[in-house]
Automatic annotation (TrEMBL):
It catalyses: 4-amino-5-hydroxymethyl-2-methylpyrimidine + ATP = 4-amino-2-methyl-5-(phosphooxymethyl)pyrimidine + ADP + H(+); 4-amino-2-methyl-5-(phosphooxymethyl)pyrimidine + ATP = 4-amino-2-methyl-5-(diphosphooxymethyl)pyrimidine + ADP. This is Hydroxymethylpyrimidine/phosphomethylpyrimidine kinase. InterPro entries: HMP/HMP-P_kinase_dom, PM/HMP-P_kinase-1, Ribokinase-like. One of its GO terms (biological process) is thiamine biosynthetic process. Belongs to the ThiD family. The gene is thiD. It comes from Feifania hominis. Signal peptide: none annotated.
Length: 267
């Protein structure tokens, strides 16, 4: 069985972070593993508090996985501080997994910050150059590329700039855009658009986590990068279509909708 590792934060409400990643990996059919970098007390409406795991325990978790199990792809999510970033980056440089999909998480869907403002320099200098694919949403791409993004052409310019910072490929996600949900992949030479109609829902907690871990899963299964993004886009669109209207804020994406519908069950 192919394996994928999520290095990210824990969302106790189960919609984003490590929990979304492992649900996605399981639904796609790879063996999911997790290195917890931060524990976030959050739900669909708010973040109550965040506590980071010590750099030593982050490093030890990564050692525990890599010394024992072949890792076919890694997904990196929330890294809140320069110390977390340095611990993860050092170990990724040591183990050099083939696929490293990095989602540079900065805010939760309800607007609460998940990355300290002062971490942006370390993100750019230390983390981004490790990405075989970086998957910023539009506000994150604006911060990293240092430019406003209002059009699809701006998305392309920002993707080029971010590739110039050392990411091998960049997928700018259009969930925060107006109109269709259009994402643009830049692989260093060509652009690939991925377009679906926008689903009218507030229940988008965990969409970015779901997409990046789906891409890592399909890369682990041997898909090409454009193919993995296409299949992951299909997966996240279905997970948003069947998102659960639970909680008082932005409800979570739903991962087992295909299983339930095949069993004739209700969602
Ligand atoms: N309302 C929506 N309808 C359809 N697709 C969406 C919607 N919102 C987000 N997406 C898609 O979900 C994925 C995650 O994007 P986005 O929500 O921008 O990421 P993030 O969670 O990092 O903010 C992208 O493929 C985006 O196009
Ligand atoms: C621990 C953690 N990691 C990431 C996100 C962002 O989730 P998304 O951008 O996918 O809604 C989150 N809310 N919590």
């Amino acid at each position: 069985m192919k394996t994928a590792l999520s290095i990210a934060g824990s969302d106790c409400s189960g919609g984003a972070g490590i929990q979304a990643d492992i649900k996605t990996m399981s639904a796609i059919g790879v063996f999911g593993m997790s290195v917890i970098v931060s524990v976030v007390a959050e739900n669909t409406s708010r973040v109550i508090s965040i506590e980071d795991v010590s750099p030593k325990l982050i490093a030890d978790q990564i050692d525990a996985v890599f010394e024992d199990i072949e890792v076919d792809a890694v997904k990196v999510g929330m890294l809140s501080t320069p110390a977390c970033m340095a611990a993860v980056a050092e170990k990724l440089r040591q183990y050099r997994p083939r696929h490293i999909v990095i989602d540079p998480v900065m805010y939760a869907k309800n607007g609460c910050p998940l990355m300290q403002e002062s971490s942006i320099g370390t993100l750019i200098d230390t983390v981004i150059p490790l990405a075989t694919l970086l998957t910023p949403n539009i506000p994150e791409a604006e911060k990293i590329a240092g430019m406003p993004i209002k059009t699809v052409d701006d998305m392309k310019t920002a993707a080029r700039r971010i590739a110039g910072l050392g990411a091998r490929a960049v997928l700018i996600k259009g969930g925060h855009y107006i109109g269709d949900a259009e994402d643009i992949l830049y692989d260093g030479s060509a652009f690939y658009p991925y377009v679906r109609r926008r689903i009218d829902t507030k229940n988008t907690h965990g969409t970015g986590c779901t997409l990046s871990s789906a891409i890592a899963s399909y890369l682990a299964l041997g898909e090409s990068l454009p193919g993995a993004v296409e299949r992951a886009k299909e997966y996240v669109t279905g997970a948003i279509e069947h998102a659960l209207d639970i909680g008082r804020g932005c409800g979570p994406t739903h991962h087992f909708y295909r299983f339930y519908s095949q069993q004739g069950g209700t969602l």
